[in-house]
Automatic annotation (TrEMBL):
Protein name per its UniProtKB record: Uncharacterized protein
Gene3D superfamilies in UniProt: alpha/beta hydrolase
Native species: Pseudictyota dubia
Biased composition annotated in UniProt, kind: Basic and acidic residues: 101-111
Region ranges (Disordered): 91-111
Length: 111
């Protein structure tokens, strides 16, 4: 991986119309750099007020670590997602897609 790559923070919501592209961008950039971070929350593209606390905290931590190079800066997980399933809440992951992801397909019900 390239040691001189600029740090990248991707932030989107599960209901954002750019979510698929952000996930793809993360996979592409993180293959080249160890300084790429992804945060996916329970937001739409226009849900700015709801995401403010998480967004601002993440930005400050990211800036401390990569721009200020603060030795006491919080370690950031490569991926942080809000799980929408039965275990609803924020989860830290080592990568995207997660290593234990199971793909499930929903079939339409017969009438």
């Amino acid at each position: 991986k390239n040691e001189q790559s600029p740090p990248v923070l991707l932030f989107c919501g599960w209901y954002d119309f750019f979510c698929t592209e952000q996930l793809h961008d993360f996979q592409t950039v993180s293959a080249l750099s160890d300084t790429c971070r992804l945060v996916v929350g329970p937001y739409t593209h226009w849900h700015v007020l709801a995401m403010q606390p998480k967004l601002f905290r993440t930005l400050l931590d990211f800036f401390d670590k990569y721009l200020l190079k603060d030795p006491g800066a919080k370690d950031l997980p490569p991926v942080e997602v809000f799980s929408m399933g039965h275990d609803m809440g924020w989860q830290q992951l080592p990568s995207w897609p997660p290593p234990n992801l199971e793909e499930k397909k929903n079939a339409p019900r017969a009438r």
